[in-house]
Amino acid sequence: NYKWLKRIGTDSEFGRDMIATDDGGFIIAGSTAFYGTDRGQGADIYLVKIDGNGNIVWNKTYGNPNTTYDEAFTIDKDSKGNLFLSGRCINRGTFMCFIMKTDTAGEPIHTLAIGQENQSTNGYALDVTSEDKVVITGYTTILEANFQARADLLLFKFDNDLKPEFLKAYDPIV
To answer: Which segments within the chain are labelled E, that is strand?
Structure first.
């Protein structure tokens, strides 16, 4: 049994993570290939606010034009309701980890792309701590020869203004 079931978008939207909001609604983070700058030729980050009945309150897309793939994999919020997203974006022709802070309405406050050309770096899980610090884990090939090599564990920690406290890649000990 379910309370309601709604379709949001077309057949090219993906919700990858969501958070509950204080007003009984939800914010969904993912990607879309239908809306945004890469409509039909890539993907953009997609953020959708819905109310407790599944009705869209607002939606936003963010991304680079020119047939790139920008995708959010994770979302959380701080004590003031600001949203933090992470995933991957194409920057300088390379998949890089992006970190975005928005206000409660999804308007960008700050965005970072972290990575290196000819490498691959992705953020897959994000948590905002009780001190409003932002911690992200994922993977990177920065310690390797190129993006085709095996990936290593990645861990980032930022303050609430997205100033890095540490950025670490861990080469596994075998």
So the answer is: 13-20, 26-32, 44-50, 56-62, 71-77, 83-91, 94-102, 108-114, 121-128, 134-140, 152-158, 164-170
